[in-house]
Amino acid sequence: MLVVEDLVLAGTNSVIEVSVVSKALFHLRPVEIQIRQNWCKGCGICTALCPKKVLALDDRGKVVVVNGDACTGCKMCETHCPDFAISVGVMPT
Ligand code: SF4
Ligand code: SF4
Fold this sequence. Notes:
- This protein is mainly β and about 90 residues long.
- It is built from two helices and six strands, in the order βββαββαβ.
- The protein binds iron/sulfur cluster (2 copies).
- The site of one iron/sulfur cluster has 14 residues, from helix 2.
C-alpha cells in the first residue's frame, strides 16, 4: 500500500491556494485538489456533494481537504462550485 500526501501552501495578497496531492488507497491514481480559499464563499455545496467526505468547511467558513486519500477524482466538487474555487486534477499513472 502506497500513500503519498504532500501539502503545499502558497499565498499572495489576492490568492491563497491549498494543494493536496494524494495517491488514493484503492485506485492508486494521484489526485491533486487545488483550493483557492479566497474565492470560496462557504456555501457548502462541495462538502454536501462529495461522495467520499473529502472536504469540510473550517472555522472561517472556507473549504479544506480533510480526507484527501479518499478522493476518487470524480470532480463533483469542481463542476458544482459556483465560484470556481476548486480544481481537481487526476494525473496519469
Ligand atoms: S462549492 Fe465552492 S464556494 Fe461553495 S464551499 Fe465549496 S469551494 Fe466554497
Ligand atoms: S473530486 Fe470527487 S471525491 Fe474528490 S473531493 Fe471532489 S467530489 Fe470529493
